[in-house]
Amino acid sequence: MPTLRELTEAIQRRSGVRAVVILGADGLLIETHDSEQSHAEALAARVPAVATAAGQLGAAASAGEAGMIVLEFQDGYGVVQRLSDQVLLFVSASSDVALADLLYDLRRHRFAMAALV
């Protein structure tokens, strides 16, 4: 079975992926691979608010909890994935990332990553 570091490194090696951050729902950093080595703490501090807002939107729409949130920005994408009640994954990617492939791989590895944290 791969380690958490091996899984996050595999995601980060994808063309177009800038950062992979695994964090607690409280914003504390658990594991990161950040190509710029400067954004992980700032990202971890902000991701829980996005997950909370998406959960509230899902409740208001009677759609349930948000398992994956995809954000499109001017210069790329952000993906928030809930690994468990207490652990979140955030991936920052450039606009040229193969988004469908990335989302597929994140879904495929969700339970393996969750089992490691």
Name the descriptors.
117 residues; Beta-Lactamase; alpha+beta; 5 strands; single chain; globular
Cα radius of gyration in angstroms: 13 Å
Using the coordinates above, name the CATH class: Alpha Beta
Would you count the extended β strands for me?
5
Separation of the first and last Cα atoms: 13 Å
How many domains?
1
Class by alpha and beta content: alpha+beta
Strand content: 25-35%
Choose one word for the global shape. globular
Segments where pLDDT lies below 50 for 5+ residues? none
Please list the strands of the largest sheet in the order they lie side by side. 2-1-5-4-3
Provide the CATH architecture.
2-Layer Sandwich
Q: At the fourth CATH level, what is the homologous superfamily?
A: Dynein light chain 2a, cytoplasmic
Global mean pLDDT: 91
The profile of the biggest β sheet is: 5 strands, antiparallel
Tally the helices: what do you get?
Answer: 3
